[in-house]
């Protein structure tokens, strides 16, 4: 089923806003002559886990950026937890979070400038006072890093929340170690802790198990599944790990050249392409192969 077929049977963004965690309606983003995102529509129900797949340049990152309110659409609309983005972002950013092991704070900004940037993003009041308060205790350890993000989100009982995350994500052995001295896998776990610090209703994840050994990666996936169930959270997951997608996702959206190529459950997509794994489907779409069922028919 194509994206346009699905979109034609859907209610409007306004009708979906109360029930959907994310509602995207005819979204377009053009950079000069390049259509990075080309008229896509989808709606994610609350409590679901959806995989967003596509090769480099497919439009995944731009789509997520528009969902977060960081990039203005050329046309179309985005609603997150019932609020229009980016115009109502201040009402919803505290209820969502984002995690990627590939994203760090801007290196050319000072610590103070970084804190001011994030504080403005989340609508923190008394900006100078809050930055001064955080900076007074800042040591750039894992604990202090989580404290910074917790304060920006105004997390209650912050010390207890950090202790719980350290226990859940196995951070205890290096909770007071400087971030710069962490391994790649440890940094990934810390990034996940940051993403969960405010108990988000909506979690956007980019390769959440990158750099982790198989045992730890499996544990992280189990933790995400448990977090979703216990909190009725919605997760949008961008990943190139097809086993991860098959295990976690209720639904898969495949993008190519800014458009949605397919959108269904993993099982339905595999059946439609006459394939046995999501990876085989991904390669068919990425390389422009005809549908597997059509190949057999020939």
Q: Briefly, what is this?
A:
The chain is an alpha/beta fold and 298 residues long.
Report the mean per-residue pLDDT as an integer: 82
| Cα separation of the termini | 21 Å
Largest beta-sheet characterization: 6 strands, mixed
Number of DSSP-assigned strands = 10
What is the helix content? 40-55%
Which CATH class of the largest domain applies here?
Answer: Alpha Beta
Q: Do you know the CATH topology of the largest domain?
A: Rossmann fold
Which structural class should the secondary elements be placed in? alpha/beta
The Rg value, from CA coordinates, equals 20 Å
Explained architecture:
- 37% of the residues are buried.
- The two termini are 21 Å apart.
- The protein is globular.
- The strands form two sheets. A six-stranded mixed beta sheet has the order 6-7-8-3-9-10.
- Helix content is 41%, strand content 21%.
- By secondary structure, it is α/β, with parallel strands linked by helices.
- It is built from 13 helices and ten strands.
């Amino acid at each position: 089923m194509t994206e346009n077929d699905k979109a034609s049977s859907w209610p409007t963004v306004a009708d979906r806003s109360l029930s959907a965690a994310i509602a995207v309606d005819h979204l377009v983003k053009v950079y000069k002559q390049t259509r990075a995102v080309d008229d896509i529509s989808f709606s994610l129900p609350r409590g679901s886990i959806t995989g967003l797949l596509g090769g480099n340049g497919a439009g995944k990152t731009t789509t997520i950026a528009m969902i977060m309110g960081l990039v203005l659409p050329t046309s179309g609309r985005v609603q997150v937890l019932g609020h229009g983005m980016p115009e109502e972002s201040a009402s919803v950013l505290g209820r969502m979070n984002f995690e990627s092991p590939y994203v760090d704070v801007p290196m050319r900004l000072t610590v103070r400038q970084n804190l001011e940037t994030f504080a403005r993003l989340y609508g923190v009041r008394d900006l100078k006072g809050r930055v001064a308060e955080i900076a007074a205790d800042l040591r750039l350890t894992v604990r202090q890093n989580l404290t910074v993000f917790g304060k920006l989100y105004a997390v209650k009982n912050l010390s207890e929340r950090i202790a719980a995350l350290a226990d859940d994500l196995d951070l205890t052995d290096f909770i007071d170690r400087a971030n710069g001295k962490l391994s790649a896998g440890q940094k990934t776990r810390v990034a996940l802790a940051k993403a969960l610090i405010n108990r988000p209703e909506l979690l956007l994840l980019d390769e959440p198990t990158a750099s982790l050994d198989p045992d730890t990666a499996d544990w992280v996936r189990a933790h995400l599944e448990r977090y979703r169930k216990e909190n009725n959270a919605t997760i949008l997951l961008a990943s190139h790990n097809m086993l991860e997608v098959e295990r976690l996702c209720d639904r898969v959206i495949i993008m190519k050249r800014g458009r949605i190529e397919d959108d269904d459950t993993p099982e339905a997509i595999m059946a439609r392409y006459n394939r046995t794994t999501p990876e085989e489907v991904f390669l068919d779409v990425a390389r422009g192969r005809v549908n597997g069922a059509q190949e057999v028919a020939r």
